[in-house]
């Protein structure tokens, strides 16, 4: 899920003219039993950290929109029943990041 989301995010960012300097994610998955008592991955939280230079950084609103687009396009996210949340972090080089 994390890699699929990242690839779509980078694609949409590139199409919009943004230059991403680095992208990391420390996704976390939570296991739980479903209604039938089977163990499943019930929740995944993506925690992408995206770094841009100060002269070319999007707003946090634009960053959030890029992540929404990536989530909507991610074929893996569209194929699973798991709840997926995204908690993006914007880092800007040269602004104390």
Can you describe what's shown?
The protein is α/β, with parallel strands linked by helices and 97 residues long. It has a single domain, classed as GMP Synthetase, Chain A, domain 3. Helix content is 29%, strand content 34%. It has two helices and six strands. It has a three-stranded mixed beta sheet, with no helix packed on it. It is elongated, with a radius of gyration of 15 Å. The mean pLDDT is 95.
Q: How many distinct folded domains?
A: 1
Give the spatial strand order of the biggest sheet: 1-4-6
Distance, first to last CA = 26 Å
CATH hierarchy, class? Alpha Beta
- Global structural class: alpha/beta
Assembly annotation:
single chain
Task: Give the radius of gyration.
Answer: 15 Å
Total E-strand runs: 6
Helix content: 25-40%
Number of helices: 2
At the fourth CATH level, what is the homologous superfamily? Answer: K homology (KH) domain
Strand content: 25-35%
Low-confidence stretches: none
Describe the sheet with the most strands. Answer: 3 strands, mixed
Shape descriptor = elongated
Question: How are helices and strands ordered from N to C?
Answer: HEEEEHEE
And the CATH topology?
A: GMP Synthetase, Chain A, domain 3
Average pLDDT: 95
User: What is the level-2 CATH architecture name?
Assistant: 2-Layer Sandwich
């Amino acid at each position: 899920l994390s890699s699929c989301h990242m690839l779509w995010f980078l694609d949409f960012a590139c199409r919009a003219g943004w230059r991403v300097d680095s992208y990391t994610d420390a996704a976390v998955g939570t296991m739980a039993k479903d209604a039938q008592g089977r163990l499943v991955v019930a929740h995944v939280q993506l925690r992408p950290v995206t770094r841009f230079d100060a002269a070319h950084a999007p707003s946090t609103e634009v960053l959030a929109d890029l992540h929404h687009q990536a989530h909507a396009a991610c074929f893996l996210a569209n194929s699973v029943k798991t709840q997926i949340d995204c908690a993006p972090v914007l880092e800007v080089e040269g602004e104390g990041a």
